[in-house]
Structure prediction request, 637 residues.
Amino acid sequence: MPVPFQRVYLESAGYFMPGEPVSNEHMDAYIAPLNRMSERIKRRILAENGIRERYYAIDAEGRTVHTNAQLAAGAIRHCLQQGAAELSRVSLLASGSSGGDALMPGFANMIQGELAAPPMETLSVHGICAAGVSAIQSAAQGVELGAHRSALAVASEMPSRLFKRSRFAARGYDTDFDSHFLRWMLSDGAGALLLSDGAPALAGAPGVRLRLKWIHQRAFSGDYPVCMQLGLTEDRSRGHLDFGSWGEAEAAGALSLRQDIRLLPHLFDIGIHEYAGLVREGWLDPSRVDHFLCHYSSEKFIPVVDDLMQKAGLAIPRERWYSNLAWRGNTGAASIMIMLAEFLQTKPLKPGEQIFCYVPESGRFMAAYMLFEVEGAGAAAAAAPAPVRTEATTEAPTEVIAPPHDPAAAPEGLGELLTELASIWHDYRSRVWRTPLVRQIRERRFALPDYLNWMENWIPQVREGSKWMREGAASLVEPYQALAALIGVHAGEEQDDFMILFNDYRKAGGSIAEIDALRRNPGGEALNAYLHGLAATRNPIGLLGAIYVIEGTGQRIVPALLPLIKAGLKLPPEAFRFLEYHGHNDENHLNRWLAAVEMAMALDGEGRAARRIVDTARHTAALYLMQFQHVTERISP
Prediction:
């Protein structure tokens, strides 16, 4: 749930960019290629990210020109100058960054020292892109609670020191793609906001004030592996402090900043789901958003975000988007503050306009949002605030991208059903990623005996899939014969899948020779009994809800697990054919599912089909989750 604010105003904003802008053509003077591969990677990444200029706080010899604390102090001074405000007014300083100049003490304290600021409360938020929003939220809460009349939030990043060519000498300039990638993406800079409890007109915008309405942040670190990190080895098995010396850690690559770009699509799924939830619960009305400030690391992701919003039925027109990525670069946690400060200095505002900010963080997946509203400067600060929530005028989102159907091509009238199913899926997926089995896989503790045990549990469950589908199709009578035929086609494709999985099991070294000797675990037994029982009832339309969850697991969860499983098990490719097959083919199965749902809804004379599908999906998710939770237990044949 978002944190609402009723008496917090943005008084002024500022930023600090070190030195002169560095063009793509002149990057090599600061971020030199490491080997033959890096030049090719550089061209590819720069062609995609849309960044034309950026700033570095180091010189061409790699010497530090500005420290990170100095960058932050520069942004604060600019912010205070913009609002003609005195630092002595401020009693809270909150900072956000991926790291200051020292491991200790806290970054906010180092900034305070750099400013020679008077005694005040400080808070240092350590994170990545969303750390800037966390700093803003902390400062805003201090003002909202009345503990502070004025508070500063600042975010500053200086990754250039990590990208110097000399950093890679210990590894012979040989490095992996994940650590190459960010060298051409990130740059230095700082931004700051001054918040107060009843500000005069916004600095540089006579006649208006800017009120912070709410902030919403949510982390999904328990659901996914680390995506962007500094301080771990490439396989995430050792931290930099686990080595005998810094030199050993650097030689092992533990001090290289890495991004696993293969995980990034999941970040946008999460972000759009949270966005849709904000709309659904009345916190945001997309039709009222006049300015959308979206932090993306690359212009390559603009159509991705836009497309997902379009598919969710919650698009904000592109002419309302604002970004300065092209000429300021990607400055991590500082990006949203630099963007907001430059936006306020260059765009005229009118009372009633809303500014919506979105910051995805790929470190271990977070999504952060802020909503500001422009008020007339004459509005009484003590007046009763308007309700925090707004009544959304748009319809409920038609899709929350889980599993990945294309709602733009979905039949009319399925929006409410897809939204409810997506909510069930979102909770189910999150719980699956926290089961002991998936945690073993994510933490690289998944050994061959674990893989074999999983398949011993799973094979007899998969074997029953086509059986309950055929039984359910046989239970469909007038007017559902066409639907029965469609389900029969699907059951036919599923019929021999269990043999693919059994052969994988044997290729991996499984010792049980007879498939009939395998036994389902308690969760698998419960799921099997439930689905067979439902399939035996008259017109079991609800089975479509079960297929949604089961096929969605194969299309969404399995592909995310497969690279982790392969990395941890030294097995030939033929030991993973079942997982590969479902990752590639379940999308087609889900498209067929969508056609089946359309058919069922059109034939539903009692108006109960949607509820039966949703209820069955919820029960199936709970039982499938139970199957995941019991997989780590050994089942004796």
Remarks:
- The chain has two domains: 3-376, 407-630.
- The two ends are 47 Å apart (CA to CA).
- Residues 170 and 247 are 8 Å apart (CA to CA).
